[in-house]
């Protein structure tokens, strides 16, 4: 890259970041996130991925891979279009989905585990959880339904610089026009204190706390009490600011101890301090906008970053700078708030604004109160191995 081009690129990045936060995917959670992989399978392997063997995966032989197989086939709907993944994804169609030995043999024949390590060489990272919540609401503001969920406002600009700077293909910048200039889109506090979003209400729900956590999860369901129908609300966009943890805010303020900063702990704090609810929520400047989707099959999960349905307890959100979306990932961690082992094959099918660094995962627990209970308490340490396809040359040598 020439010095002139580098200077132009640096100027563009600085100017863009002055407009709004530089984001590559949704805030946290938007799991149902629409992030795009910023690396191809195998890239950065020398920095963060170390080839290993299946014998190094504690729990590999005990995992019932039949439970992960549907999620893997779902990933293959996209991965089969990529050269490195075409052969294993094509062959996978003929594997007996009920034969655990055949599935294990398939992975061991066509894939090589690579342990994911952090930049400092450490092998462990944070594993959290997320889920799809259910809220009660109405299309009209009335009675207990006083908290809005908003659709994408007309004045929100999403700027893609990749046509000019291919290096920025994974970056999306958000702002709005003020006169003939692009300005940052308002942060949460300003949006809540103004009428900027008036007229963009998608639904009204009966719980402001649950509405906030819906933005953290990224997608959910709303039971429309006046229509006797349940619909899905999916992540559509956000205001361009990075997600900031309100749990961390309470810890830094001395309001909660670190081990108390679970979703349940935060909700209990809000219940005890209702006058400070706005202060707490505004500590996170990110604001998420939704779109309505028909809930055709309640058993099917929300769409993740690949545009494919997530599978409860077999899908995770990852940082796509280090782990290619769609790839199988063997996760070795523990059950929420427990020392009981949780070791199983997962599929990297989602992203999130808070999911940064190589060894970092968000475990999708599914839909409903029980899933929410587990997700809210999950803050474990874990290790990860991403399974990458063997090259055709290596396959022919076996």
Give the topology.
Blueprint: H1 3-19, H2 45-48, E1 49-51, H3 69-79, H4 83-92, H5 100-110, E2 111-116, E3 125-132, E4 134-138, E5 147-150, E6 157-159, E7 173-178, E8 181-184, H6 188-193, E9 201-205, H7 208-217, E10 220-224, E11 229-238, H8 246-252, H9 263-272, H10 277-282, E12 288-293, E13 315-317, E14 328-334, E15 341-350, E16 360-367, H11 369-377, E17 379-389, H12 392-397
Notes on the protein architecture:
- With about 400 residues, the protein is α+β, with helices and mostly antiparallel strands.
- The protein has one domain: RlpA-like domain (Barwin-like endoglucanases, Beta Barrel).
- It is built from twelve helices and 17 strands.
- The strands form three sheets. A six-stranded mixed beta barrel has the order 3-16-13-15-14-17.
- A hairpin with a 2-residue loop joins β7 and β8.
- It starts with a helix and ends with a helix.
Summarize the structure in short.
The chain has helices at 3-19, 45-48, 69-79, 83-92, 100-110, 188-193, 208-217, 246-252, 263-272, 277-282, 369-377, 392-397; strands spanning 49-51, 111-116, 125-132, 134-138, 147-150, 157-159, 173-178, 181-184, 201-205, 220-224, 229-238, 288-293, 315-317, 328-334, 341-350, 360-367, 379-389.
Order of helices and strands: HHEHHHEEEEEEEHEHEEHHHEEEEEHEH
Beta percentage is 25-35%
The tally of helices reads 12
Please estimate the helix content. Answer: 25-40%
Question: Overall mean pLDDT score?
Answer: 87
In CATH, the topology is named Barwin-like endoglucanases
Structural class: alpha+beta
Q: Write down how many β-strands occur, each being a DSSP E stretch of 2 or more residues.
A: 17
Principal-axis shape equals globular
Proper CATH architecture: Beta Barrel
Spatial extent as radius of gyration = 22 Å
Largest sheet: 6 strands, mixed, barrel
* Ends apart, CA distance between termini: 41 Å
According to CATH, the homologous superfamily is RlpA-like domain
Total individual domains: 1
Strand order of the largest sheet: 3-16-13-15-14-17
């Amino acid at each position: 890259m020439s010095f002139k081009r580098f200077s132009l690129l640096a100027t563009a990045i600085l100017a863009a970041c002055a407009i709004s936060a530089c984001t590559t995917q949704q805030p946290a959670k938007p799991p149902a996130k629409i992030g795009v992989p910023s690396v191809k399978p195998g890239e950065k392997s020398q920095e963060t991925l170390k080839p290993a063997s299946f014998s190094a995966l504690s729990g590999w032989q005990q995992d019932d891979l039949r439970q992960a197989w549907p999620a893997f086939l779902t990933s293959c709907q996209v991965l089969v279009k990529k050269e490195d993944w075409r052969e294993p994804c094509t062959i996978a169609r003929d594997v007996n989905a009920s034969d655990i030995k055949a599935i294990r043999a398939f992975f061991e024949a066509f894939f090589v585990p690579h342990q994911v390590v952090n930049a400092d060489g450490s092998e462990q990272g944070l594993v959290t959880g997320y889920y799809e919540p259910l809220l009660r609401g109405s299309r009209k503001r009335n009675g207990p339904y006083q908290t809005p969920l908003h659709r994408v406002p007309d004045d929100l600009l999403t700027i893609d610089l990749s046509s000019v700077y291919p290096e920025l293909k994974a970056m999306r910048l958000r702002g709005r026009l003020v006169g003939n200039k692009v300005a940052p889109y308002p942060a949460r506090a300003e949006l809540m204190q103004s009428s900027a979003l008036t007229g963009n209400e998608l639904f009204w729900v009966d719980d402001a706390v649950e509405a906030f956590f819906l933005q953290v999860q990224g997608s959910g369901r709303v039971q429309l009490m006046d229509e006797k129908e349940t619909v899905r609300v999916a992540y559509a966009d956000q205001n361009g600011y990075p997600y900031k943890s309100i749990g961390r805010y309470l810890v830094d303020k001395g309001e909660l101890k670190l081990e108390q900063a679970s979703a349940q702990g935060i909700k209990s704090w809000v219940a005890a301090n209702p006058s400070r609810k706005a202060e707490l929520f505004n500590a996170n400047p990110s604001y998420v906008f939704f779109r309505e989707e028909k809930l055709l099959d309640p058993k099917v999960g929300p769409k993740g970053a690949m545009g494919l349905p997530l599978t409860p307890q077999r899908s995770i959100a990852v940082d796509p700078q280090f782990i290619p979306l769609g790839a199988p990932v063997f996760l070795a961690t523990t059950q929420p708030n427990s020392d009981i082992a949780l070791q199983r094959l997962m599929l990297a099918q989602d992203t999130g604004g808070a999911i940064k660094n190589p060894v970092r995962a968000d475990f999708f627990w599914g839909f409903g109160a029980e899933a929410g209970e587990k997700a809210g308490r999950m803050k474990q340490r874990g290790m990860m191995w991403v399974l990458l396809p063997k090259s055709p040359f290596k396959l022919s040598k076996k």
